[in-house]
């Protein structure tokens, strides 16, 4: 039985303008760089930490 990898989808809702370079780099690390762009990533503690770091710029999308 194969273990199913969980994923999390994040959407950029805030602009990186006038933000520290560290926050811009975190957005790029998540695969985001333009408004309303979505990225689906493996749900790991590292990814969750990145999302928490820039929670004011992204939102987690609940796919049904």
Structural features, described:
The protein is α+β, with helices and mostly antiparallel strands. The protein has a single domain, classed as Ribosomal protein L30/L7 (Ribosomal Protein L30, Chain: A). Helix content is 28%, strand content 23%. It contains 2 helices and 3 strands, in the order E-H-E-H-E. It has a 3-stranded antiparallel beta sheet with strand order 2-1-3, with no helix packed on it. The protein is globular. The mean pLDDT is 93.
Termini gap: 24 Å
Mean pLDDT: 93
Largest sheet: 3 strands, antiparallel
CATH hierarchy, class: Alpha Beta
CATH level-4 homologous superfamily: Ribosomal protein L30/L7
What is the C-alpha radius of gyration, as a whole number of Å? 12 Å
Question: How do the strands line up in the largest sheet?
Answer: 2-1-3
Q: How would the blueprint of this fold be written?
A:
Elements: E1 7-12, H1 21-29, E2 38-42, H2 45-53, E3 58-61
Any descriptors?
globular; 64 residues; single chain; Ribosomal Protein L30, Chain: A; alpha+beta
Short précis:
The chain is of the alpha+beta class and 64 residues long. It has a single domain (7-61), classed as Ribosomal protein L30/L7 (Ribosomal Protein L30, Chain: A).
């Amino acid at each position: 039985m194969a273990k199913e990898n969980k994923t999390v989808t994040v959407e950029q809702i805030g602009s990186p303008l006038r933000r520290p370079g560290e926050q811009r780099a975190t957005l790029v690390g998540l695969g985001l760089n333009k408004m309303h762009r979505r990225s689906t990533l493996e749900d790991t503690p590292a990814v969750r930490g990145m999302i928490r770091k820039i929670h004011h710029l992204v939102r987690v999308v609940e796919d049904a």
